[in-house]
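// run 5 | inverse folding | seed 20
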């Protein structure tokens, strides 16, 4: 019997029939390791020098996660158009001359395999794909400004689609013990922008948030692998926005060499999540710009402009024991909000800076208790 959820339009392309969605990964390819490493470190794919795809099915999977259906004539035409524009950019703006085979001869869907090979053609294919990656993102962002789709409808489409995917993951053996989603409330948005030095709403990445809790710490990496294989494109994980105090990145090489670990390993913290989190708070947080298929939401006059827009989403992933520990004492969300609200009060009520006190010293004074605050009913010094 088909689930009512599954019958609704999906934000993402369906999985390939032959692709498994469980945790049974017998070996980890170099590409798998590099994708997860990028997610954990918040690096940028533009700084990569090669892909490590091993065959046509790897390529199809990468395109599908990017919401590109290589069996669709329309999608293939858009890919070819992207390649032509990217070649023009490289030659006309940067003065780079691409190998003719890479620039126009070889089918566009073969470029990722060429970027995974060796020699000069590999380098040319890699450079071309990087520019196409940027242009695809810009096109989808521009399309979003042209479509009369309210944000709440897009968020609902993404929420429902990811909910269905996690139902499928549970059914296939992924030990998800908690899956939840939320949207930032208007009050939370105001608080976040008052805390941040950048007060532009465009810099808020976590309006849409998903929380995933798995049974064991040892289940986190395989679950991330499934997410990257299914609906999170590694190349659109937002650089510089990952917070990882949960997983040891160096352990990835061991995972690649030996898929079945002999003993579970505990987390090796890498960094403190942010200034309002307690020192014992442990988490993996990352932001992904999800390419969302909006075919079902488009009117007839809008279909010629494309069918993919991007929706930013925050993902928080951890194991059950870590989730329980994070809700105790100073690590709890309530304590976090108290610290955040206190900082907003201090920032709003701060008086004129004293002579000789730098901004850095002023911040240190506040943290040490010597807070420079101007109460609302106080008069400023003359």
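// decoded
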């Amino acid at each position: 019997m088909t689930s009512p959820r599954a019958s609704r339009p999906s934000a993402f392309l369906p999985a390939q029939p032959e692709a498994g969605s469980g945790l049974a990964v017998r070996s980890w390819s170099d590409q798998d390791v590099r994708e997860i490493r990028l997610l954990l470190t918040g690096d940028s794919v533009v700084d990569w020098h090669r892909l490590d795809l091993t065959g046509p099915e790897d390529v199809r999977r990468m395109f599908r996660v990017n919401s590109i259906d290589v069996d669709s004539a329309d999608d293939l035409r858009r890919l070819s158009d992207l390649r032509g524009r990217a070649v023009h950019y490289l030659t006309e703006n940067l003065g780079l001359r691409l190998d003719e085979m890479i620039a126009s001869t070889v089918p566009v869907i073969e470029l990722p395999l060429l970027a995974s090979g060796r020699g000069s053609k590999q380098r040319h294919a890699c450079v071309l794909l990087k520019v196409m990656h940027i242009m695809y993102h810009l096109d989808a962002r521009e399309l979003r400004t042209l479509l009369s789709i309210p944000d709440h409808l897009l968020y609902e489409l993404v929420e429902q689609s990811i909910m269905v995917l996690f139902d499928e993951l549970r059914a296939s053996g992924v030990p998800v013990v908690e899956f939840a989603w939320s949207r930032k409330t208007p009050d939370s948005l105001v608080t976040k922008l008052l805390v941040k030095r950048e007060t532009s709403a465009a810099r808020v990445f976590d309006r849409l948030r998903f929380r995933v809790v798995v049974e064991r710490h040892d289940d986190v990496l395989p679950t991330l692998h499934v997410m990257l294989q299914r609906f999170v494109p590694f190349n659109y994980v937002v650089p510089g926005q990952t917070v990882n105090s949960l997983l040891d990145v160096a352990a990835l090489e061991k995972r690649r060499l030996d898929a079945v670990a002999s003993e579970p390993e505990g987390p090796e913290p890498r960094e403190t999540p942010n200034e309002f989190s307690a020192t014992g708070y442990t988490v993996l947080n990352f932001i992904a710009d999800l390419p969302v298929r909006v075919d079902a939401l488009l009117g007839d006059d809008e279909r010629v402009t494309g069918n993919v827009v991007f929706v930013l989403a925050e993902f928080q992933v951890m194991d059950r024991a870590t989730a329980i520990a994070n809700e105790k004492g100073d690590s709890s969300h309530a304590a976090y909000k108290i610290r955040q609200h206190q900082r907003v009060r201090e920032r709003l009520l701060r008086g004129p800076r004293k002579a000789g006190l730098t901004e850095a010293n002023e911040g240190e004074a506040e943290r040490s208790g010597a807070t420079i605050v101007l109460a609302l009913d106080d008069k400023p010094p003359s």
